[in-house]
Structure formats: C-alpha cells, structure tokens
Q: What sequence folds into this?
C-alpha cells in the first residue's frame, strides 16, 4: 500500500467509522512515530499505516477525539494494512469491509475476536435469508465473566445461528441468548420492560437491552431494519447502518451540540438517537433567545420571518399549533418524555426550541432561500443553523448537524 492508497483508505473507510471526521492532509514524519496521535485540543488525529512509516494522514472533526477513538482507529487500520495486499483490486473493497469488522471485534474484546466475528457472520447470513416470509431479529449477550467452554450441552453460537430454528430463539428488544467468553450458549434472558431506567446513551427502543450491557457484558442485536447494534458499558457503542459501521462517542457529540444547558443538550441528543433508529426522519433546531426576533419577524407575519405565524405554539392560531400547544402545555423540551419528543420531531417540518428548552414550534414549515442546494429538509436545517444549532435526521437514520455560522454557509459540525 502506497501513500496515496493509504490516504484513500483513511478517507473512505476510517472517517465514516469516526463520525464527522474528514481528511485534511498528509504529514511527513520521521520513521518511528506513534501509529496514532491526537493533536492540539483533540480535534485532530494523525494516522500512519505502521509505526515505521515516514508519513501520517491527518484527519479532523468538530467534536473531540478521545483515547478510545484512537484505539479503534489503530485496531481497524492495523487489520486493513495486514490484509490489503493479499488480494487483487476487484476483491479489495470486500476484504477491507471485512477487515473493519475484525478491527471492531478486536477493539471490543481482543481475546475473543474470533467468537465475536462468528456472531456478526451469523447476523450477515440471516440478512440474506427469511424465516416463513419474515426477516428474523436477534439479540445476543456475551458474558465475559462466564468461562464455560463449548461442549455437547453448550453449543457454539456459530453453529446455532446456522440453523433455521435460531430465528425463533430471540428478538431485537425483549429477549436474548447468553454466551460465555468462549462463545458457548449458556442461558436465555428476558429484558425487563417494567420500570425501565432511562439511559442518555441508547435509543429508547433499546434502553432495557443497553442497561443489561454492564458487569463485563457486551450485547449484540440485529433489528428488523437489518441494522446491527452493539452495546457496552450500558451505552450504544457501534451500529452498522446502510452497510457502514459507526462508533458512538456520546460525550464528545453532546459537547459539540453548542447552546443550552447540559439537560437541554442531553434531551436533544436522546431525541436524535430515537428518531434515527425509528427511521422516520426529522429536523430539530436549538436557537438563542436573542435570535428569536430575527427568526420570528412581526410575530410570524413579517415578510422576513423564517417561521409562519400558523406554526408558532404561543397564542396558537391554526389547528395544528392549537393541538400541539395543548399537548405540550408550556413544558420545556427537556421535561417532555422521550416518546413524545421523538414523535414531535418526526412530524413533517422542523421542531424549534430555545437554548432554555422553550418549544417555539413543531412541524414548522421553514422559509428557504431560493438558491439553496440539496433536499428540502437539508435546506431547512441549514437555514435554521444561522440562528443556533440545527440537526437533520434522514429517513435512513443518518444524522447531520450544522452549527451557527455564516448564514449562506453554516459550518457542518457532525455526521453519524
């Protein structure tokens, strides 16, 4: 692999895993530099193919990289480099994608990589099959404290997933198969849906499952949308959506959502996760109170107003705003329950709140500059970003956030 090829690998395969990252440049360094280094305030990472390489590819993003991001990048890039030249060009993309999965598994549990790959391979085989006309869902818990070896009464998970009946043994929310550290099937678990303890770092649909991923347990699930989710330390760690792996650095992303108290930013982040995994799409903006007068001109009746009067919840004038106002009852966004927030943001149009959490509008139709590029939801999001932070969630689950910047070209802050 030469320098140009390595830079392409980083751009096409490493940056998508590290949400929001982009390649900046190639930096020439003396041989023997560390393979992964974090620069400045942590928003820049330099990656080299090996510790003996005389160059590094520099990537950056708005949210901060942390040591776990660096460990993940090292695990994945090491696996790609080790296998890159073992195959010819027509097959290389497939080899790289498989190397990414191996790197993810090594990052999660270096001593159990082969067993974790068996789980992902089993999920992948079922993505091309159905059981009685439906695509089955699965949940698997690996309990690394359990040392049971594979034997006649504790079969290996790879063998189990290869059978037709495995489609009926668990699902993606309520139940799961429990494995030992060696991949032996040892138990079955029901995930409680009663008195669920909330979790800022998991989609609401999977909170009980995520909460179970503690005490040295890692949980895998395959959903009815053929997504793969991995939970560790009671957090969503990875998802595989649209055939791409994403690593979730929750703390850095919440910090990058500029504006408002921590409670407001956490509520916005939870809602983004919930809408992303519900596949409804949505748009939410958090605006400064001082900018509301520019956003809402002459109580929404002015020609320059970005929001129409009919969409404002204060003194509502339309059936939609009257209905939503009666449901919200003046409560701040962070005090609404997660399901209500998810459903609000999923309404066609934009949900707009202030830094303090006041809900200004739900399902608002945004006045867009006639010269805007991209889809309507993206254009609306960029328009709203001139007043604070605006986030677009696509129907396929992908998220793009824009932060306050130039009105013509707001800065993209994050993608995941």
A:
């Amino acid at each position: 692999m030469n320098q140009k090829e390595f830079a392409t690998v980083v751009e096409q395969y490493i940056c998508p895993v590290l949400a929001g990252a982009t390649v900046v440049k190639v930096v020439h360094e003396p041989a023997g530099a560390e393979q992964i280094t974090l620069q400045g305030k942590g928003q820049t990472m330099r990656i080299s193919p090996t510790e003996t390489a005389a160059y590094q590819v520099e990537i950056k993003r708005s949210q901060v990289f942390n040591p776990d991001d660096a460990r993940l990048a090292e695990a994945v890039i090491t696996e790609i480099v080790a296998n890159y030249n073992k195959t010819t060009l027509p097959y290389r993309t497939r080899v790289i994608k498989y190397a990414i999965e191996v790197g993810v598994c090594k990052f999660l549990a270096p001593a159990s990589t082969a067993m974790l790959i068996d789980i992902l391979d089993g999920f992948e085989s079922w993505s091309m099959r159905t059981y009685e006309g439906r695509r089955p869902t699965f949940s698997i818990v690996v309990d690394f404290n359990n040392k049971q070896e594979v034997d006649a009464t504790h079969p290996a998970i790879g063998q189990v997933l290869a059978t037709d009946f495995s489609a009926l043994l668990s699902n993606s929310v309520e139940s799961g198969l429990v494995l030992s550290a060696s991949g032996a099937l040892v138990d079955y678990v029901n995930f409680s849906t009663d008195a669920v303890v909330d979790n800022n770092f998991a989609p609401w649909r999977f909170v009980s499952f995520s909460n179970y991923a503690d005490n040295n347990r890692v949980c895998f699930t395959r959903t009815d949308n053929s997504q793969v989710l991995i939970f560790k330390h009671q957090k969503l760690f990875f998802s595989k959506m649209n055939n791409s792996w994403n690593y979730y650095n929750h703390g850095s992303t919440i910090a990058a959502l500029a504006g408002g108290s921590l409670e407001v930013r956490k509520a916005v982040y939870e809602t983004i996760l919930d809408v992303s995994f519900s596949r409804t799409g949505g748009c939410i903006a958090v605006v400064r109170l001082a900018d509301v007068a520019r956003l809402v001109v002459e109580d929404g009746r002015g020609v320059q107003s970005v929001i129409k009067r009919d969409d404002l919840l204060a003194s509502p004038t339309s059936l939609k705003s009257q209905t939503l106002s009666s449901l919200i009852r003046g409560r701040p966004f962070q005090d609404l329950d997660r399901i209500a927030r998810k459903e609000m943001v999923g309404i066609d149009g934009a949900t707009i709140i202030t830094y303090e959490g006041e809900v200004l509008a739900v399902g608002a139709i945004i006045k867009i500059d006639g010269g805007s590029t991209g889809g309507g939801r993206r254009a609306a999001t960029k328009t709203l970003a001139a007043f604070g932070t605006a986030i677009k969630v696509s129907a396929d689950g992908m998220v793009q956030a824009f932060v306050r910047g130039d009105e013509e070209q707001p800065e993209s802050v994050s993608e995941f």
About this structure: The chain has three domains: 3-101, 112-248, 257-415.
